[in-house]
Amino acid sequence: MKVLIIDDSNTIRRSAEIFLKQGGHEVMLAEDGFDALAKISDFHPDLIFCDILMPRLDGYQTCAIIKRNEKFSTTPVIMLSSKDGVFDKARGRMVGSQEYLTKPFTKDQLLQTVRDFTGQAN
């Protein structure tokens, strides 16, 4: 399973990377939307975690751009945010995100979300 983590927080990126690698997944990290868009075509992730609040290109814009590319239109995008608001979840769905994970997340929450979208058994 190839997973792309887009987050401007080095701590969040590294935590997610450690958790996912422990779960047996291949991980690519991106520090913002522009970085992600530069890497996505070469990496071809099966699943994308995308922070909402990032400089330059926010998570909603990044998700919308990814979803407009027909190569990645069916790739699940899970929004990451420290806010757990109804508005944020609804806006995420409007740009094509499939799920919303509140930070800080645990290893179990992260790996369960991956399993939910890949059909992997526990």
UniProtKB/TrEMBL annotation:
Which residues are reported to carry the modification 4-aspartylphosphate? Answer: D51
**From which source organism is this entry?**
Ottowia cancrivicina
Q: Which SUPFAM superfamilies match?
A: CheY-like
**One Gene Ontology biological process:** phosphorelay signal transduction system
Q: Which InterPro entries match?
A: Bact_response_regulator (IPR050595), CheY-like_superfamily (IPR011006), Sig_transdc_resp-reg_receiver (IPR001789)
Indicate yes or no for the key word tRNA processing: no
- PANTHER family linked: PROTEIN PILG, STRESS RESPONSE REGULATOR PROTEIN 1
PROSITE patterns reported in the protein's UniProt record? RESPONSE_REGULATORY
* Protein name, entry field: Response regulator
One family name in Pfam for this protein: Response_reg
Q: What CDD domains does the database record attribute to this sequence?
A: REC_OmpR (cd17574)
> Key word Phosphoprotein present in the record?
yes
- The record places domain Response regulatory at 2-118
Q: Which UniProt keywords apply?
A: Phosphoprotein, Two-component regulatory system
